[in-house]
Amino acid sequence: xxxxxxxxxxxxxxxxxxxxxxxxxxxxxxxxxxxxxxxxxxxxxxxxxxxxxxxxxxxxxxxxxxxxxxxxxxxxxxxxxxxxxxxxxxxxxxxxxxxxxxxxxxxxxxxxxxxxxxxxxxxxxxxxxxxxxxxxxxxxxxxxxxxxxxxxxxxxxxxxxxxxxxxxxxxxxxxxxxxxxxxxxxxxxxxxxxxxxxxxxxxxxxxxxxxxxxxxxxxxxxxxxxxxxxxxxxxxxxxxxxxxxxxxxxxxxxxxxxxxxxxxxxxxxxxxxxxxxxxxxxxxxxxxxxxxxxxxxxxxxxxxxxxxx
Length: 309
What we know:
By secondary structure, this protein is α/β, with parallel strands linked by helices. It is built from 13 helices and 11 strands. Helix 8 crosses helix 12. The strands form 2 sheets. Strands 8-7-6-9-11-10 form a 6-stranded mixed sheet, with helices on both faces. Strands 3-2-1-4-5 form a 5-stranded mixed sheet, with helices on both faces. It has 2 domains: 2-109, Nucleotidyltransferase, domain 5 (2-Layer Sandwich); 125-291, Exopolyphosphatase. Domain 2 (Nucleotidyltransferase, domain 5), CATH 3.30.420.150. The longest helix is centred in the middle third of the chain and has 22 residues, at 176-197. The two termini are 12 Å apart.
């Protein structure tokens, strides 16, 4: 079944057009991603800015034409943290409908995690059945526990790379007191999430989304993004700390051009690296398996399953 989806995130928007088999694997036909910072300022004022909405709508207009050209059976668009928290989200959804011809479904943290799990599972090695999925987004981070024979257990915490940067890491580069505050906040929320999840210390950690895939690219010093070298890459704690040491004392301008770092992510990579390190340390995890598959693949699989029923 040929289907298409758009993931409207706090930091990044993603398009995926693909064919989904009954068993779940996704065959990508066309994909795109743009760092558009829709959630810029939302943590402080609970409003999507006019400039951010225009950036996203222009991208959606372009992508709608791509979707139409592929003659898909069905398509969908979802929005996550920034849109669900914004007081003017109805204005944004109405403009997207009128100006880009797209209906957007606003999903909560649990539904975001459920579909992310579908995406992760569709790309995992067959021998990994039980795992802790970790999705570090722009506005939130999702913990997804999958154990064979049990329903998924999901917890979403209100810390993401954009939110933590805007709330705490305001200096350039971040000051030591800001880094300490960011670490304390991340650890507090992580400890509560892990207590509520219970019994996850022994599970392998599988990470998805832009922070973790960027760290895998930086670790390999990729001059151009290669999904085949990112997917199922094992990101060790020592490597996470090494990358953190590389980015933490540089200014945003100095981080630009760093091999493997996606343009537009230089402002939030410190927050992302700090979040991942703190979570791995709280778990006692030595490795994080990197998944190129995540929410957008899960949205695509979910759409195909609903259309076939």
